[in-house]
Specification:
CATH class: Alpha Beta
Structural class: alpha/beta
Order of helices and strands: EHEEEEEHHEHEEEEHH
CATH architecture: 3-Layer(aba) Sandwich
Number of helices: 6
Distance between the termini: 28 Å
Number of strands: 11
CATH superfamily: Class I glutamine amidotransferase (GATase) domain
Number of domains: 1
Helix content: 25-40%
């Protein structure tokens, strides 16, 4: 599975790192993509992550999944990018995975891909999403759209992605290896 994890200025660090870390431990091919004009991107709490590549250098035809973390102003920056909104739309139309956590489902709403879908997000964000059916579950998988609620559910999201992309057994082994919920 090839996954593009998108870094926008002001991303939520814990959500981003936890998910990418678990995916890489599960031997998934995760490419960290900067949406800014620099490889180094600052998160909402001023932690800096160095991306692998710039957005313009990614061949999204070779990507199977796009991952959007939350955080402010990270999500606002994702929403402001017509490239990101259009790519989300194209991924859903192409039956590829789109994963969003915290406030990032707002981008899915902007792309118009939550119609007749069940989703979750940061609770205060739910009222701003006009399509789809909101759930308070930790992680919601509806077809190839996967959503999660926030920092506190980041490990649940990463392990759910491993379960879907690899196997339930792989996710369980990883859960035990990182001593989560044991």
């Amino acid at each position: 599975m090839k996954i593009a994890a998108i870094l926008a200025e002001g991303f939520e660090e814990t959500e981003f790192i936890a998910v990418v870390d678990l995916l890489r431990r599960a031997k998934q091919d995760v490419c960290v993509v900067s949406l800014t004009e620099q490889l180094t991107v600052a998160g909402s709490h001023n932690f800096k992550i160095v991306a692998d590549v710039m957005w313009a250098d990614v061949d999204f035809d070779d990507i199977d999944c796009i991952f959007l973390s939350g955080g402010m102003p990270g999500v606002t920056n994702l929403q402001a990018s017509s490239d990101v909104v259009e790519m989300v739309r194209k991924f859903v139309q192409s039956n590829k995975f789109v994963v969003a956590i915290c406030a990032a489902p707002l981008v899915l709403n902007d792309a118009g891909v939550l119609e007749n879908k069940k989703f979750t997000c940061y609770p205060a964000t739910a009222a701003s999403i006009k399509n789809g059916t909101y759930s308070e579950e930790s992680v919601v998988i509806d077809g190839k759209i996967i959503t999660s609620r926030g920092v506190g559910t980041a490990l649940d999201l990463g392990l759910s992605m491993v379960s879907v992309f690899c196997s339930k057994e792989s996710a369980e082994e990883l859960r035990k290896a990182v001593v989560y919920g044991v």
